[in-house]
Structure formats: structure tokens, C-alpha cells
Amino acid sequence: MGRRCDQGQSSDVPATGVRRHPRAGREPNPCPCPARSGRLDLPGSRRPQPGERLWTSRLREAGKWLLRGMLLSGEQALAQGTTADRATVTIAYTTTMGVRHPADVTCKPTAHSPDDPTPRNSALVQAEAAYHDVVRTAAEYASARETTRLVAAEIRRTRQRVRTLRHHRIPRLSGELAAAEQSLEQTEHEGSVRRRWASAPAGAAGTGSSRI
Q1: Alpha-carbon distance 131 to 143, whole Å?
Q2: Which contacts (CB < 8 Å, 24+ apart) does range 111-117 have?
Q3: Which residue of 4, 122, 131, 141 has the fewest CB atoms within a 10 Å radius of its CB?
Q4: Max CA pair span of the chain
Q5: Are 50 and 66 in contact (CB under 8 A)?
Q6: 71 with 127: CB under 8 angstroms?
Q7: Residue 203, exposed/middle/buried by CB under 10 A (0-12, 13-18, 19+)?
Q8: Tens-place pLDDT, residues 75-120
Q9: Alpha helices in 25-121, H assignment, sequence order
């Protein structure tokens, strides 16, 4: 069990939360209370995946370029530089372990026409390219996450079927097999007895029947 932090006691614990040893003149490690150490793990919290970290990192970088461009030329420069076309994301599917899931992601950037207005500054050009990377990274992350979800669901269903077979169907079939083998053995025994009776002479048949 972990060591409890008693915040109400102040004899040996100074305001910094460090307990001083009465014999040695040194300070031991601070109190490992999660609320004081700043490492409080909330229920349901999770660590971001590598794809999610890459996506959020590029999103922050694109936001910085966009902010620089708007500071240089104003918010109206963003509206004037917007094109009619949008990026196109194409997802190809494949089948693994009997599960159809996303396999390949293709992101086609926005196509500019000669009539489109040019960006007011280079920061907006960098922002446009950065947001194209954000869209592509987000699509790849979503594809990988959906694949993981589908395959994990199939694994759970397979485990459930295995448990059903192991605890229900296999014992029932084993019992039915044992009963069938016993019935077959009894039938073979009765057949052999009948064959002995049929092959024995008339007098011996009566004697043999008394023995059985």
C-alpha cells in the first residue's frame, strides 16, 4: 500500500510538503501524493496515439501560419484567398481476417485555376500547404483508427465464439459422441451374441443360452 499524505499534520511536514527525517539532516523525497506531484491519472484518460500526435502537431503548425498571414494582411485576406474547389480524399478498402477495412488513403490537394486570387502574403501560402498536410494526416489517422476498431471487434467476436465452443458446444458434442459410441458398442455386442447363437448346433444353442 502506498504512503498516505496527512495534510492536517504540521509537526514534521513543512509547507513545501517535504517530511524531514528526525535523525538525518537531509530531506527525503517529496510526498508522492498525486495531487501534489502533478501526475494525477483521471479515470478513462488515455495517451494519444502516434498518428493522433502527428495530426495535432501539424494542425497546430498550420494554425500558426494562418495566424501569421491574418496578422500581416487582415482577416479579409483569408476570405479573398478561398478557392471554390476543395481537397478530395479517396479511401481504398481491403479484407483481412474476413474483415473489410480501409487500406490506402489518397489525398488530392485543392486545384487552383488561373482565375483564383493569389494569397496576400507568403504566410498564407505556407498555411494552405500546411492544412493540406493536416487533411492528409487526419485521413490517414482516421483510416488506421477505423481499421484497428474493425479488426479488434472481429477479434472480440472470435474470442466469444471460441468460448462458446469450448464451454458449450464441445462438451455437448462430446457427450453425444460418448453416447453414440456406447450405443454402437452395445449394438456390436448384441450382434456378436446373435451370430454365435445362429452358428451353434441346436443342442448347444440351448446350453449356450443358459450360460449367457
Answers
A1: 18
A2: 111/85, 112/83, 112/85, 113/83, 113/85, 116/83, 117/80, 117/81
A3: 4
A4: 123
A5: no
A6: no
A7: exposed
A8: 888 777 666 567 888 999 999 888 999 999 998 887 777 777 778 8
A9: 34-37, 50-73, 76-80
Q: How distant, in Å, are the alpha carbons of 158, 178, 179 from that of 171?
A: 19, 10, 12
Predicted TM-score of the model (pTM): 0.56
Q: Which segment, 15-24, 112-121, 145-154, 202-211, is predicted with the most confidence on average?
A: 145-154
Place of cell 501560402: 125
Domain at 50-161, CATH from 3.50.50.60, 1.10.10.10, 1.10.287.3240, 3.30.70.2210: 1.10.287.3240
Residue-level length of the chain: 212
Classify the C-alpha dihedral 188-194-198-203 as positive or negative: positive
Span 162-208, pLDDT tens digits: 999 899 889 999 999 999 999 998 888 888 888 888 887 765 555 54
Amino acid identity of residue 61, one-letter, is: E
